[in-house]
Amino acid sequence: MVKAYLRYTFENVCGLVSGHSSNIITNDNYIFSGNSQYVTITNSKTEEIVKILFDKDKNSEVTFLALSNSLNYQKILAVGYVDGDILIWNLEDYSIKCNLNAHKNNITCIQFNDDCSQLISGSDDTSIIVWDLLGEQALYKLTGHKNSITDLLYYKYRDNNTNQINEFILSTSKDGLFKIWDMAIASSVQTISSLSNQVWNMALYKEEKIILLGTNNDEVIVLKFITTQNSQTKQNKIVENIGIYKKQSFAHPTQMTFTNNNQYLFLLTNEKTH
Question: Highest taxon of the source (predicted)?
Fold first, then answer.
């Protein structure tokens, strides 16, 4: 007797076994999250899934998301993957604008500059790459860290002596280094190495020109930009260490951010929030 079997055909994705594989970001109306090879866009008010972004030619897992914040530039989403690629999605028509591929390993962090004409990416391959989004190509690579890049910040800094505005990239790494890179010369201009074994992330208080560094122990290191150089000893210093804040947990922060009014700092760790 011939046994009959039911025949199944693929219809649609109804859920995922795995959890979030990347950071979660938001704007005024939507929540963006990475799940395996997919990026889910959810309406934050109705809690309904608006769109699932998926490239059929990409089998790698999503590791990092970054959303453009310029009003003068089209709305784009940068998606980093385990294989080192970065896909740029146009959120107006949900099409892939370009594929940036120069990293050799997992993408760990992505930042846009102010006008979103450039993108800065960090990776487990220890390098930082600055990309020209208009030309869709890498401009230059920054090397100097000895372990995975954990966080990046783009920062404009005004020298009070010359009144000149400089553009910097701030980077942290599992090698315990905090580095400042001058984008005009594509080179490191200051390194602070007397830190913990690992530095995981940063929070920037722009008004007071203060940077907080989250480490893999109970310390949050406080740095401040030097706006006026008065002595020879500070000639080559962009920031200086002004103190340490002790947190309750020894677990490294997975995220640090200031509230909009800068009155509070939120630290999220693997254990709890503080």
Answer: Eukaryota
Reading the chain (274 residues) residue by residue, the pLDDT tens digits are 666 666 666 566 555 555 566 788 888 889 999 988 999 999 988 889 999 999 988 889 999 999 997 655 568 999 999 999 999 999 989 999 999 999 999 999 999 998 899 999 999 999 999 999 999 999 999 999 999 999 999 998 777 777 888 899 999 999 989 999 999 999 999 998 866 678 888 988 887 788 888 888 888 889 998 865 554 444 568 888 888 888 777 777 777 777 777 777 777 777 654 4
Q: For residue 98, what is the enclosing H or E element?
A: strand 95-101
**CA geometry: angle 106, 110, 115, nearest 5 deg:** 155
Stated pTM of the model:
0.83
Give the right CATH number for 21-143 from 2.60.40.420, 2.130.10.10, 3.30.360.10, 3.40.50.1580: 2.130.10.10
Per the listing, tokens 């008010």 go with 45
What are the extents of the domains in the chain?
21-143, 150-274
Distance CA 249, CA 267 (A): 10
Q: Are 36 and 21 in contact (CB under 8 A)?
A: yes
